[in-house]
Amino acid sequence: MYFTFLALNGMTSSRQRHVRRHHRPLPTSDRYYPGAGGDSEISCCVKYTVFGFNVIFWILGFALLIVGAWAQIEKNNPYSQLNRLSKFYLDPAWLMIIIGAVTFAIGFSGCVGALRENTCFLAMYSTLLGLLLLAEVIIVDIVGTNAVLFKFYVILYRDDPDLQTLIDWMQTDWHCCGINKPDDWDLNIYFNSTAKALKSEEAGGVPFSCCINGRELENYACGHRVRLLDPRHVGDVIYTEGCLPKLQQWLNSNFVYVGTSIFVVAVIQFLGICFAQDLRSDIFAQRAKWNRR
After folding, report:
1. What pTM was computed for the model?
2. Cα-Cα-Cα-Cα dihedral of 168, 171, 175, 181, to 10°?
3. Domain topology for 148-252
4. DSSP E strands, 101-236
């Protein structure tokens, strides 16, 4: 029995040595732990740059989304909201919701893709960022100082409180009235000159924000029927220059600053796409190394 035990023990020891010899652990330099250093193909600098950059967009997009949704729910009943969906691009609240949702999606996909080294989310991030960059180019090229948008702003002035606030701010701060002239307010049914047959006090008038002394006096009736006065005295009461020429003049005066801002934003977005693609390439290279081992 004793000799049998020794023989079995010797065989066991021999088997253990054989297992240890053929299953030696990899050297420390050959090991890879996700998120750690070592012999990794993934650059921590690129990874956490993409992550940190998108945390800001994630938070900003979420904030815009919440504020826009709150403004849209609070200002009108659901029927009125659905009725204006066809012209959502004229509603500041809807624009805030759309911009917030896109920014949130870009920030979220960038953060998750970088932190979890997920190539699908990184591809989604690059695609969204590329589409956003393309959309910005189209908007700057087509919309720009398009008078058609201003026309709809005038028509819908009384139908949307947010839009009304925006127009009043523009006319008050830019010292302008209407698109090209005060008579453009004839496009609005409330200020149309023919509305005087309905005994409307606003017929032939303009919003209070067109009044020269509107800010100091806060007289909301100062623009009533003002366009029905003698044309020689209209300039003493309201601004006679349109807002579109004012906008064009401001863009021409600040062309360097506006152009630089657009260029910087485009470069940041392009670098974001490059960094995301570089990180994806590193992840694929690391996976290929795992497969070879």
Report:
1. 0.66
2. -140
3. Cd81 Antigen, Extracellular Domain; Chain: A (1.10.1450)
4. none
For residues 274 and 133, the answer to whether their CB atoms sit within 8 Å is no
Six token digits for residue 207: 């919003």
**Tokens 């005087």, residue?**
196
SS3 letters across 114-137: HHCCCHHHHHHHHHHHHHHHHHHH
Residues 6 or more apart in contact with residue 38 via CB below 8 angstroms: 28, 29, 31, 32
CA–CA–CA angle 152, 153, 155 (5° rounding)? 60
CB atoms within 10 A of CB 152: 14
Per-10-residue mean pLDDT of the chain, 293 residues long, equals 42 45 42 47 79 84 84 63 57 81 89 88 91 84 68 85 88 91 91 77 89 68 86 87 89 88 89 90 85 75
Q: What does each C-alpha distance from 151 to 133, 188, 265 come to in angstroms?
A: 27, 9, 29
For the chain, give every domain's residue range: 44-146, 148-252
